[in-house]
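ugh finaly. both done.
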Amino acid sequence: MMKKKSKLVSYAKWGYIFLIPFFVTYLIFSLIPLVSTFYNSFFENYMVGLMKVGPKFIGIDNYKAVFLHSELLTYLKNTLIIWVMGFIPQIFFSLLLAAWFTDLKLRLKTGAFKTIIYMPNLIMAAAFSMLFFAMFSDSGPVNNLLTYLGLPSYRFLSEVAGTRGLIAFLNFLMWFGNTTIILMAAIMGIDGSLFEAARIDGANSWQTFKRITMPLIKPILAYVLITSLIGGIQMFDVPQILTNGEGNPNRTSMTAMMYLNKHLFSKNYGMAGAVSVILFIITCILSIFVFKFITNDSDKVKVKKKKKGGSL
């Protein structure tokens, strides 16, 4: 009797088929606009009233104009200051809450906490900004409360510290819950026997967090830092609404993306393309730097462990 050959069923093709929607979406909405932006940055293409000038190829003149005749560096500085003001408390409270919620000694039921701290992330930034604009305006509820208590009122949206502080605080409120949940997942992925061994050795909570938790969640911290950095460079909606698109006072709250929007609004597509490409390059450089810094640090730790293991 002849043995029937068993048919080998390959499901590999289905994996590629399921990837097609992602690549099509990426091609249409990301790659083609990226190439188009880079292409338009080399052309003089803008509107003067009802008259359109260009497109006319001018090489790197748009890039020269951005660096020599614009205030992009000032707006990048504003963006960095506001991002740091929001990110430092964000990462501090996120690490604190993540360590607290995952502490086995406390045995907290974190379902309700996760919902509460993540809820601000579900609210549109525009709605949040309008709420804060109404609350902290010169005649808003906050200043009325200060007057009622006999305290001097404060023009939050007319002072540099007040405006930047509100923007940073809004960004902190919207994103610290998301960061906390990511860090909680990272800590929960650590082998529990390591924490048990640390407790047996007499390590306190701070020593356990410093020697075990922090080194093992560094890759996730790098991810959080990079994504927050990218989001910081793209900061637009909150300062746009709070300052009515002007970056007041005296453009100290004008971000790089607001500056880019000014060129798009005036239909100066050549300059807008050049600014976009510059921001893209800056984002790539900063992301690679952060990734390499974290990776090199982790590699050094691994090398030290191997050396110690070999010497035993």
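ok and the 2nd:
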Amino acid sequence: MHNSSLDLEQYILNHIDNEDPILSQLDRDTHANVLYSRMCSGHLQGSILTFLSKLVSPQNILELGTFTGYSAISLAKGLKEGGKLHTVEINDELEEFAFSYFEKAGLSETIIQHIGNAEEIVPALDETFDLVFMDADKRRYVEHYEMVIDKVSQGGVILADNTLWDGKVVEPIANNDLQTKGILAFNDHVKNDPRVETTILPLRDGITMLRKR
């Protein structure tokens, strides 16, 4: 499709709300200083996360995979007054980076950081979540989904990132490609789970959207 997809994305960016200056700075800082910077949500995905969060109007949000904090800040914009966002990141080297931007965004009291393995941290959280954003280890997506589903309120929403995985979900899979296998297993699992309604938004690497019945 030559450059049509890039042109179309730029057209979209030109016709949505302007990027929050703090998020713009965060994105630049991430790309300048952090490995795997393409994992940063960026303006287009961030705007959709904010929009969806405002539609849900959650009291509590859970995020699996903080990275540098772009998605957490985007999601937190939709919280009800007094609401909290719990975000879990296994890489402790990113903790201070993300927290510095939570402070700049005025969200250091709203966003609660947890550093460590989500499968140890999340079961200990005594909360019900209206919105969950899954963006951690793709190999463990099914396990993470089962870990959070009972903590989601009725009518609550789960968003799972990267579920089209750069198109690899429709290509032959190498035996050692555990991340693609994990995503395929997750997509099949939720498609057949009667507890949720399921659709996929073909944005960037794909976002699976689930609503708890």
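summary for the 2nd one i guess: Strands lie at 60-64, 84-89, 111-115, 129-134, 152-161, 196-201, 207-212.
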